[in-house]
Amino acid sequence: MGTSQILQCRNRNLDWGDRTLLMGILNVTPDSFSDGGRFFNSSFAIQHAYHLFEEGADIVDIGGESSRPGANPVSVEEEIRRLIPVIDEVAGKGKGLISVDTVKYDVAKRALDAGAAIINDISGLQREPRLAELAVETGAGLIIMHMRGTPQTMQTFVEYDDLISEVRHFFQEQAALAKRMGVKDDQIVLDPGIGFSKTAEQNLTLLNHLEELRVNEAPLAVGVSRKSFIGKITGAEVDERLYGTAGAVACSVMKGANLIRVHDVRAMKDVVAAADAIRRERIV
């Protein structure tokens, strides 16, 4: 890859063509599958966000509503209450590059007002197409993820005739929708939604054929960190999936991922660096 692949994040640009980018995960929730409750306190969350940047994250992705299977939805007001103090400090005052993980227009707008630079929409514009309007108005990056149903229902929608072609078709349709609304190519990231309306075996298929999912030369984001398919492979509980995650992250980079979403930034930074060097046949 060359060095011309740029992701626009408001007034900043990220070069995803030269190396794989790292997104650190910060869940300001009481019930996320991996770290639920650990950073529910705003001061702890702020401290951890800065820590993730210190460890090497290019972006910190902050979510205020759990998307684990069966998770209970929260109100707009509660999600804003959880997110805005953290984003205001880390992005507003600290100037950290923050992505907001939300499917709600009002939440995303408040987060962008507070300084967030990327909208991470796990519904892929299915729930709130107006999120694309916010990306146009602000110049924010827009991550479009593939998912069927909602976190409450998604694991009942795992029947596919042709998984790869159906996910790729979804990307084509939703990227075209975003572009019709005015979003530019260099604002769009596509995420196959590992673990979202997918079986463990389907996750493996998507990761093994990642490059076949690419649409319009857009960067591909992958989130495999600590997920249940790794537990099925290794038998490890959530907090013991570091090495399994490392294997999945390395394979994702080798198969074409441009952005990796992880909990353990420091460890995965080295994993990504090694995989990047092999994939590109040079020291990055």
Tell me what the structure shows.
40% of the residues lie in helices and 15% in strands. The longest helix has 18 residues. It starts with 5 loop residues before the first strand and ends with a helix. Helix 1 packs across helix 2 and helix 8 runs parallel beside helix 9. Strand 7, helix 5 and strand 8 form a beta-alpha-beta unit. It is built from nine helices and ten strands. By secondary structure, it is α/β, with parallel strands linked by helices. The strands form two sheets. The chain has an eight-stranded parallel β-sheet. It has a two-stranded antiparallel sheet with strand order 1-2.
Describe what is shown at a glance.
This protein is of the alpha/beta class and 284 residues long. The chain has helices spanning 42-55, 76-93, 105-114, 131-138, 163-180, 200-208, 228-234, 242-254, 265-280; strands at 6-9, 12-15, 21-27, 59-63, 98-101, 118-121, 141-145, 188-191, 221-223, 259-262. The strands form two sheets. An eight-stranded parallel sheet has the order 8-7-6-5-4-3-10-9. A two-stranded antiparallel sheet has the order 1-2.
Q: How many β-strand stretches?
A: 10
How much of the sequence is in beta strands? Answer: 15-25%
How does the overall form come out from the CA principal axes?
Answer: globular
Mean pLDDT: 94
The side-by-side strand order for the widest beta sheet comes to 8-7-6-5-4-3-10-9
Helix content: 25-40%
Compressed to H and E, one letter per element, the order equals EEEHEHEHEHEHEHEHHEH
